[in-house]
Structures are given as structure tokens and as C-alpha cells.
Amino acid sequence: MQLRGEQYMKNNKQLITIPFWRDNRIIPILLQMLFVIIVFSAGFYFFSNAIAGLDRIGIKLGFSFLKNPASFSIGESLIEYSPSDSYGRAIVVGILNTIKVSIIGIFFASILGTFIGIARISNNWLAKQFASLYIEIIRNTPLLVQIFIWYFAVFLELPKVKESIKLPGGIYLSNRGTAIPWFEANPSLYLWIIFFIIGILLAIISWKVKLKAQISSGKRKYPLFWSIGSFFLALIVAFFVTRQAPVNIVYPTLGKFNFQGGYIITPEFSAILVGLVLYTATYIGEIVRGGILSVSKGQIEAAKALGLKNSTTLRLVIFPQAIRVIIPPVTSQYLNLAKNSSLAVAIGYPDLVSVGGTVLNQTGRAVEMITVMILVYLAMSLFTSFIMNMFNKHTQLVER
């Protein structure tokens, strides 16, 4: 009987066997494999076609041309550069300029967007209406048009250098740029940096120690006061050791043709920075407003019942909870700002696209330069996403 039962089950398994092309577990895998094959085949076809086209006009694919002299000047650079330098160094200059405007833009857009988002839900009628009007106008106007307005109608229309507008603090405005005081490093700068790092470490340690003591004892231990005090103590020690400041402030002075000394912010950089900040801040403001409104009203009512002020409630109750909702969409806006910086080519700011376009026109290396641009923007986006994902993970609620 047992042998007959086993034979019966074996025969039934053979009868209900499903062909793999009809198996719901296999079909998705086969479709994904087919999709990958199609994508790689298409990529191989286009790549082979590009190589064949380059061979016909006598161009070999490769990056050896980056060692050749660039033979063109760049108006703004964070590192030393001259026309005799290589194409590779010119591209590095463009990359650094793109990173500079992206980092500064993200910083100021975050601050402005936060204030705009808070103003949108403020009880102050004037602040609320101003924030709403600002968002509706800026967000619904093309970014490139705004950059053109700032560049051609604002910064280039400033007075000539000889008739510069002088602002308090040694700041001068002209159509050549904004001249501001800047810093000149002293020989003791590196020692100051060491003490600065030590001060930060002491501030973190004292904060944690005093905060832990405050929680365990229930008595106020002023962790913020001790943290700031530890940091400034390290700086005071650094001053007594070095007997000089880390830097000297150099003020701009009017020369024969332009300002000398200090630092000159070019009209191109100012236009692209202001345009990116004002435009991106509108989206960040709406994200901040949505994040604040996502916090339960019970939390706000509980804070008011405890007698907390509105500013304290926003800082200690609402915003720490809203940040969990704010971070993911704000990350997308940071990525958009970095990619939108490529519009700087329209006003002559020497970013990656501008410098890369010049290199492409001189060398004819379209495939290589487009590949470089794609990889740079991809690396910037992935790095930004990595940093923001770490911050997002840090602010998430830990479930038990």
C-alpha cells in the first residue's frame, strides 16, 4: 500500500508540472533579463556606432587630449590657472566652480526656505502674505529668465568702478563685481586650526557630560554654556600661544582699473547664486510648511499647556518632528539646485558645462566631454544623497 501511495503521488506531481514559460515565479525574472539584454544591446549599438563615426573622421576615443595645453583663459578660478595649463586642469577649475556655487547655494537656500516656510503659517498677516506672494511669483517664473534679470538688469546696471556704491564695512558695489573685505592667512593659521578642532571636541564632550548629568540629577547644568565656554577656552589658549590672530582682514581699495585687495564677487557668480537661491528657496519653503503642518495638533496644544512660548514650541517640539518629513523632499531640491547650476553657461560663469563646452569645441571630443559631465554631476548627486540619507537616518524615530 505504501509503494502504491508513493507511485500515485509521483504520477500526480508529473501531471501538475507547469511549463517554466507559464510559471508566475519565472515570468518576472525572464522579463527582467530580457529588459537588461535589450538595454545593453541598445547601448552597445549606439556606442559602436559612435566609435565607427569617430574612426571615419580620424578621431580615436580616449582621454589623452586632457594633457594638451588648453590655450584659453578662465575668468574665475579657485585654483591657480593659466592658458598654458592642460585641458584637465581647466576641467578641474570648472568642477570646483560648480561645487562652489552649489554648496553656497544650498546653504543660503536652506536658510531662506526655512524662514519662508515658517512665515507661510505665521499669525503675522504681513509676513504670511509676503511669503505667499514671493513663492507664487518666483516659483512660476522660469529660472533662466530670473538669472537673466539678475545679471543684465541688476548687476550689470550697477555704477562703474570709479562711481562704486560704498556700503558699511568696506563693501563696494559696481558693474565689475562686489568687492568685500577678505582674509589673509598668518603663519600661525595651522596651529589655530589644531586648537579649533580641539575646541570643537571639548565642546562636544562637555555638552554630553553636562547633559547626562542634567538628565540624571534633574537639576539644570547649563550644557550649552559649558559647551560654548570650552570652545572659546581653546581659542583663548591658541591666542596666548601664537600671540596673533589666525588671519588678517584685507580691505579692498580702488586701483587704476579695478579694486585691489579683498575679494571680488563677479557679476556672473552673483547672478547665478541669487537666482538659484531665490528659486530653490520657494520649493524648500513649501516643503518646510508641509512638514510643520504634518505635526499633530495635540503636540502643539500640549506645549501650550506647559506654558512654552511659540518660538520655544517651534524649536523644541514642532521642528524636531517635522524634520523627519522635510529631509527627503529637500534632498531632491538640493540635487535640483546642483543640476540647475549648469544654467550658468548662459551668462558666462565658468562652471563645468561652460568650460567643458569650450574644451569640446576646441578638441571635438564630444563623447569624452559629455561622459565627464555626466559622471561629475552623477558623483555630486550621489554624494549629496549619501550625506542627506545619513542625516535622515540620524533623525528617524527608533522603534522598539
TrEMBL record:
Domain annotation ABC transmembrane type-1: ranges: 95-388
Gene3D superfamilies the UniProt entry points to: MetI-like
Pfam families, sorted: BPD_transp_1
Classification via InterPro entries: AA_ABC_transptr_permease_3TM, ArtM/GltK/GlnP/TcyL/YhdX-like, MetI-like, MetI-like_sf
Cellular compartments per GO CC: ATP-binding cassette (ABC) transporter complex
GO MF, any single term: transmembrane transporter activity
Keywords: Amino-acid transport, Cell membrane, Membrane, Transmembrane, Transmembrane helix, Transport
Places the protein is found: Cell membrane
PROSITE patterns in alphabetical order: ABC_TM1
Transmembrane feature ranges: 26-47, 90-119, 131-153, 189-210, 222-241, 261-284, 370-391
GO terms (BP aspect): amino acid transport
Membrane topology term: Multi-pass membrane protein
Main location group: membrane
UniProt-listed PANTHER family: AMINO-ACID ABC TRANSPORTER PERMEASE PROTEIN YHDX-RELATED (PTHR30614:SF37), MEMBRANE COMPONENT OF AMINO ACID ABC TRANSPORTER (PTHR30614)
Sequence similarity: Belongs to the binding-protein-dependent transport system permease family. HisMQ subfamily.
Listed name of the protein: Amino acid ABC transporter permease
The species this protein was found in: Vulcanibacillus modesticaldus
Organism ancestry: Bacteria, Bacillati, Bacillota, Bacilli, Bacillales
